[in-house]
Amino acid sequence: MASQVPQNAQDSAPPNTSYGRSLGESLSVQRRVIDALLRREMLTRYGRHNIGFMWLFVEPMIFTIGVTILWTSTKSIHGSDLPIVAFALTGYSSVLLWRNMPGRCIGALQANLPLMYHRNIKVGDIYTARLLLEFGGATISFTGLSVLLIAAEWMEPPDDVLKVFAGWLLITWFGCALAIGLGALSHMSELVDKLWHPFSYLLFPLSGAAFLVVALPQFAQDIVLWIPIVHGIEFVREGFFGSRARAIYDLGYLIPFNLVMSVVSLIALRYVSRRVVPE
Question: Which of 49, 102, 131, 213 has a CA between 20 and 30 Å from the CA of residue 109?
Answer without folding.
Answer: 49
